[in-house]
Amino acid sequence: MTQSRMNFPAKKIEQFLSDALMALNVPAADSHTVAGLMVEADLLGYDTHGTFRLRQYVNRLRDGGNNPVAHVRTVHEQQATAIVDGDNGLGHLAMRHASDLAIEKARANGIGWVGVRNSNHAGPASLYVNMVAENDMIGIVGAVGSANHVAPFGGLDLLLGTNPLAIAIPAGEKPVFVLDMATTNAAAGKIKVLAQRGEQMPEGWMVDREGNPLTDPTRQSDGLLLPIGGAKGYGLAMAIGLIAGTLNGAAFGKDVVNFTKQTATATNTGQFVAAISIEAFGPVDAFKSTVDGIFGSFCESTPFPDGNPVRIPGQDRGNVRREREKNGIPLHPNLVKALTEIASELNIQELVAH
What we know:
The protein folds into three domains: 1-63 and 316-354, Hypothetical Oxidoreductase Yiak, Chain: A, domain 1 (Orthogonal Bundle), CATH 1.10.1530; 71-184 and 230-285, 2-Layer Sandwich (Ribosomal Protein S8, Chain: A, domain 1); 185-226, Hypothetical oxidoreductase yiak, domain 3 (Wheat Germ Agglutinin (Isolectin 2), domain 1). Helix content is 37%, strand content 17%. The chain has helices at residues 10-23, 28-43, 54-63, 91-109, 126-133, 188-197, 231-244, 284-299, 317-327, 333-346; strands at residues 6-8, 73-77, 81-85, 111-119, 137-143, 165-169, 177-181, 206-208, 213-214, 223-225, 269-277, 329-331.
């Protein structure tokens, strides 16, 4: 039976998350930044990458796998490119810094590409491409997954993560195009959520080591996540890993650390943020107007009989955000229970709805 979820005001969740991080010696300013981005993920409907992730962050900060007092810095820089070192802090801090720097470089040079190393899990990649798109730029973000759940096509050894890719393209009157996808049929976070809720996962997400469908999310470590499109998804995941990991001096392949299980070990997670200035190619308003027209033609195209209308990736996120800002962010009872346990461990005030 599906348990009903409870709604909590975004500000209360943000305060709770910030209190939890500060209790683990993360400076107040950094705690507020990370908590705000976690809540932003929840507001946009990325329930697998917001508040749900607090337990993993707490465990790593508690056990020494993450540096609570990280000094994010740019360690290598050219006119349009840079490398940011996250100092093994919370990944949101490194990615926020990298996004700001990429935007700054794109504004000056037409394009900015910033690689990140010594980072950690940073929530959904859409957070950062959205920042770029808000500046009339096209944003591209890629990352090495925070654990290896995927084998090379035709193999059994876990050498790849879900290695997400996100792209945001601004429009005029229409919502921003936002593609945020894992290179697997399902993101690992979705499986973790199902396990916490006591629900099964569909066939096609995972197989066991004999190639049989795996539907019990609590057995995730017994199987393999399947790449999108078979060999094509495998190739895409490998390309993202080489660009987000190897190019930046970050971990990839057998060197990737499982950030959930190896909570006392630095991950050296790699990511990248690219910003492309629309203005560098022509008038921004004309581009946005054309994009609006393209989106309109797609949405007006004839759907399958008895099917839903055609959608543009990301078009409903704004509606989700407005609804959750008004009525609160829904949290599953099992997640609320986990947050209550964290509050007790850290001796902070519990999260309450009112």
